[in-house]
């Protein structure tokens, strides 16, 4: 493909991504896979160049552009060498017309800029768009750190036990340790949240928003084999991914429960005031994961944030009913917005005097708003807020 043809392909892929963001469709990564599957003539160099153009535009513009052409025209002002690719040649984009609308603005949408935790200063904001590292967690019940260092001599030990960073592009699938469940891909921040939950050695655990089970598996690896971990979620597809993962990790103390949206208690009533730990990794804006999923900015609106915050409140209330006296609730969001983090903790504690904050000693993170804040700049992790609360 010519450079101009690559530019046109990037415009077309961005059109798909922008439409999906507007209509709550597939992720940018899944769209890219489908896009290239339909264009098998694109070689590896073509795919790499097109992806670079697409993700440069996604990372640059905080507000969702009208279309892919506007998104990439906005980059021309900052990268003048791109102008020659808009030549109107065969397979390339049309020439730039005078006064043609282009994308503009900051990386963070204006309406979100003042909603971040007060600790998120300018260097912190810039780090939200860095390339995310590859973190793995060693399953100490299946392997040892020595074996991991043998398989990946370049692995760098991280601040938490069994946490490592591997070089970008490392292939895991062809390694026996990965196939045998000895390691899992997991951001260090997620590992920290699981460690906070495991601190009191709970015997009965409910992972209320388990998704595909990343934190469920981490808890299983950290807790004794006779503990019981229940992974629950309303998304059948995501929940179904836990089964093969737990078999691979030989985690026999995990069971799953599919919940009905809005009717979760119907399936959880038998756990009323019974759990030693309820973990709520709540749905959120995902502002802490922008370096992995920068198009999430194009999906979020004030109305969606309000709806998500209301859902978080309901989940905390639901989870609190399932914790026994003396038990704990860990509430976490991969968000750096106060509305989803500290505000939620304050609101819950103000209306529930029978609960108190518990301090968890971890080698990463900063105390913030009756909880802990993790961020890419300060901790090298995705952005998280989490709090550990105890029922008196």
Task: Provide a short characterization of the protein structure.
The protein is α/β, with parallel strands linked by helices and 392 residues long. It is 37% helix and 17% strand.
CATH class of the largest domain: Alpha Beta
Output the CATH topology of the largest domain: Rossmann fold
Named CATH architecture of the largest domain: 3-Layer(aba) Sandwich
How many domains in all?
A: 3
As a whole number of angstroms, the C-alpha radius of gyration is: 22 Å
- Going by CATH, what is the homologous superfamily of the largest domain? Vaccinia Virus protein VP39
Low-confidence stretches: none
Give the overall average pLDDT.
Answer: 96
Largest sheet: 9 strands, mixed
Q: What is the succession of H and E elements? A: HHHHHEHEEHEHEHEHHEHEHEHEEEHE
Q: In which range does the helix fraction lie? A: 25-40%
| Residues in β-strands, percent | 15-25%
Identify the overall geometry. Answer: globular
Please state the structural category: alpha/beta
Work out the number of β strands: 13
């Amino acid at each position: 493909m010519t450079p101009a043809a690559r530019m046109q392909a990037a415009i077309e892929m961005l059109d798909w991504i922008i439409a999906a963001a507007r209509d709550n469709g597939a992720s940018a990564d899944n769209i890219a896979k489908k896009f290239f599957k339909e264009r098998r003539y694109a070689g590896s160099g073509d795919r790499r160049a097109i992806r670079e153009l697409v993700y440069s535009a996604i990372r640059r513009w905080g507000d969702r552009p009208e279309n892919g052409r506007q998104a990439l025209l906005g980059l021309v002002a900052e990268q003048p060498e791109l102008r020659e690719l808009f030549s109107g040649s065969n397979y390339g984009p049309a020439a730039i017309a005078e006064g043609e609308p282009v994308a503009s603005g900051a990386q963070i949408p204006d309406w979100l800029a003042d909603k971040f935790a007060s600790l998120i200063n300018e260097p912190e904001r810039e780090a939200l768009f860095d390339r995310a590292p590859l973190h793995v967690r060693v399953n100490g019940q299946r392997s040892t750190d020595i074996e991991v260092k043998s398989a990946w001599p370049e692995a760098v030990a991280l601040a938490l036990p069994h946490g490592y960073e591997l070089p970008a592009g490392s292939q895991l699938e062809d390694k026996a340790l990965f196939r045998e469940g000895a390691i899992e891909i997991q951001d260090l921040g997620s590992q920290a949240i699981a460690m906070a939950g495991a601190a009191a050695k709970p015997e009965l655990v409910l992972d209320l928003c388990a998704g595909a089970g990343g934190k469920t598996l981490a808890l299983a690896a950290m807790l004794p084999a006779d503990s019981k971990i229940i992974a629950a979620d309303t998304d059948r597809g995501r929940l179904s991914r836990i089964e093969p993962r737990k078999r691979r990790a030989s985690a026999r103390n995990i069971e799953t429960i599919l919940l009905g949206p809005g009717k979760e208690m119907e399936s959880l009533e038998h756990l009323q005031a019974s759990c030693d730990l309820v973990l709520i990794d709540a749905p959120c804006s995902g502002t802490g994961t922008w370096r992995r999923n920068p198009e999430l900015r194009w999906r979020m609106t004030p109305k969606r944030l309000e709806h998500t915050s209301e859902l978080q409140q309901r989940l905390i209330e639901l989870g609190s009913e399932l914790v026994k006296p003396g038990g704990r609730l860990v509430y976490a969001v991969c968000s750096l917005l106060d509305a989803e983090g500290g505000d939620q903790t304050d609101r819950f504690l103000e209306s529930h005097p029978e609960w108190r904050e518990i301090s968890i000693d971890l080698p990463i993170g900063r105390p913030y708003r009756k909880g802990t804040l993790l961020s890419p700049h300060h901790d090298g992790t995705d952005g998280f807020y989490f709090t550990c609360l105890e029922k008196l």
